[in-house]
Design a protein that fits this description.
Elements (H helix, E strand, L loop, with lengths): L2 E5 L4 E6 L4 H10 L6 E5 L5 H12 L3 E4 L7 E4 L7 E2 L1 H4 L9 H8 L1 E5 L12 H9 L3 E5 L2 E5 L7 E3 L5 H12 L4 E5 L6 H11 L3 E3 L5 E5 L7 E4 L4 H14 L1 E6 L7 H9 L3 E5 L2 E6 L8 E2 L11 H9 L4 E5 L9 H7 L3 E5 L2 E5 L8 E3 L3 H13 L3 E5 L2 H6 L3 H7 L3 E5 L1
Parallel strand pairs: 2-15, 3-14, 6-7, 10-11, 18-19, 22-23
Antiparallel strand pairs: 1-23, 1-24, 3-5, 4-5, 7-9, 8-9, 11-13, 12-13, 15-17, 16-17, 19-21, 20-21
Helix pairs in contact: 1-2, 1-7, 4-6, 5-6, 6-7, 8-10, 8-12, 10-12
Bound molecules: uridine-diphosphate-N-acetylglucosamine and phosphoenolpyruvate.
Length: about 425
């Protein structure tokens, strides 16, 4: 099993190119199921979840290939889908596999999708996806771990989800594009990956308004056609590199990055004393001195993202002063705390809150990646810790980060992948 070996203490200098967003790529790959025409995506990140999704689409009979000549380009062709099914073996590692449900049901009138796996950061039910599709007329049963869905043609409906759900909004949005009549999604998620998905769907001929707000209106059409689309930059990868530079110190330019989708994180970094400048398509971060501890609370976009909680906590571990980190989205998203404590951090968890007392120095140790973003936090901590840090079980990291250790090495980190 691959591990990362990090020797801490190096400043980070140079440039990093940010990849396309995992959480936009996954729904957009699934959106290709909505049409019999070819769909081409560019800026597709190279990561395990994308490979799993391509495999899932191929398993249904669709063509889904990454170009060898241009590795950020993926060609999709779902003209022939022989089995509208997502088996357990393929979906158990990845939450986003539930995103085939809406498109399959809308285009083929049936779908069999295993209840998804993904990060063990909470119970993560999919009741809102099911409730929304039922409101659109689908007949849905859950049996033996599978969602069995049928519908002649979905019918537009007004749907208010009980909570803001990102993949729930995406599934219902995709389903509604081919439904009969108008669908209104109230309490819709506003994460930037949703307007990005909507832009692809509009390029495919969908009629959508209000994407990026909490009310999305969709006029169903009979058919969608092919399109090409460039995936938005990954704001979570961007934020992870910002935290890494803030913690390790240095001066790094992030290319192909969007500051406007990361306001809450950038504001908190500035509060911590980190110098950040940004322009169209770039962000420059300078970590000059020991950061100041900053309290924050995760919430839906545009507030502080839960997917950045672990990485920012790693920064607070070595900051001057004490901070309070509150997680409001997932009930079990502090699994990185034990690992950070193994590196010498001073953290006490009480329910949804972690109290972090910054320490002057961390010391390298063997730690374990416990989920996707939780794996990035000991990497950041390892960059500043004295001595060697080994991060085990990095298959979690590989699910969602595009060659992270190569990118870190490119800006001067002493980090390597070992067996
Ligand atoms: C592939 C993808 O895009 N994953 C992201 C997506 O996950 P995901 O879409 O799974 O997260 P949701 O936004 O759906 O979850 C938000 C909250 O709603 C609850 N809930 C959700 C759906 C439902 O049917 N019932 C229900 O109770 C969840 O348990 C959670 O407490 O958004 C999360 C929150 O920004 C991010 O951490 C994930 O990286
Ligand atoms: C939690 C994440 O992924 P998933 O929703 O696929 O588990 C994540 O991207 O941080």
């Amino acid at each position: 099993m691959d591990k990362l070996l990090i020797r801490g203490g190096r400043r980070l200098e140079g440039e990093v190119a940010i990849s396309g967003a995992k959480n936009a790529a996954l729904p957009e790959l699934c959106a290709a199921l909505l049409t019999a025409d070819p769909v081409t995506l560019t800026n597709v990140p190279r990561l395990q979840d994308v490979s799993t999704t391509l495999k899932l689409l191929r398993n249904m009979g669709a063509k889904a290939e990454r170009s060898e000549a241009q590795p950020d380009l993926v060609s999709l062709d779902a003209s022939e889908v022989t089995s509208p099914e997502a088996p357990y073996d393929l979906v158990k590692t990845m939450r986003a596999s539930i995103l085939v449900l809406g498109p399959l049901l809308a285009r083929f009138g049936e779908a069999t999708v295993s209840l998804p796996g993904g990060c063990a950061i909470g119970s993560r039910p999919v009741d809102q996806h099911i409730k929304g599709l039922q409101a659109m007329g689908a007949d849905i049963r859950v049996e033996h771990g599978y969602i069995l869905a049928k519908a002649k043609r979905l019918k537009g409906a007004r749907i208010t989800t009980d909570m803001v759900t990102v993949t729930g909004t995406e599934n219902l949005l995709m389903a509604a594009t081919l439904a009969e009549g108008e669908t209104v999604l109230e309490n819709a998620a506003q994460e930037p990956e949703i307007p990005d998905l909507a832009e692809l769907l509009i390029a495919m001929g969908a009629k959508i308004e209000g994407h990026g707000t909490s009310r999305i209106r969709i006029q169903g059409v009979e058919k969608l056609h092919g399109a090409s689309h460039r995936i938005v930059p990954d704001r979570i990868e961007t934020g992870t590199f910002l935290c890494a530079v803030a913690a390790a110190g240095g001066d790094v330019l992030l290319r192909d990055a969007r500051a406007d989708q990361l306001d809450a994180v950038i504001d908190k970094l500035r509060e911590a004393g980190v110098a950040i400048e940004a322009g169209g398509g770039w962000i420059r971060v300078k970590g000059q001195s020991r950061p100041k501890a900053v309290s924050f609370r995760t919430s839906e976009y545009p507030a502080f993202p839960t997917d950045m909680q672990a990485q920012f906590m790693a920064l607070n571990c070595i900051a001057e002063g004490a901070s309070k980190v509150t997680e409001t989205i997932f009930e079990n998203r502090f699994m990185h705390v034990n690992e950070l404590v193994r590196l010498g951090a001073n953290i006490v968890v009480d329910g949804h809150t972690a109290m972090v007392q910054g320490v002057e120095q961390l010391s390298g140790a063997i730690v374990m990646a416990t989920d996707l973003r939780a794996s990035a936090s000991p990497v950041i901590a390892g960059l500043v810790a004295q001595g060697e840090t080994v991060v085990d079980r990095i298959y979690h990291l590989d699910r969602g980060y595009d060659r992270m250790e190569a990118k870190l090495r490119g800006i001067g980190a002493d980090i390597e992948r070992v067996k």
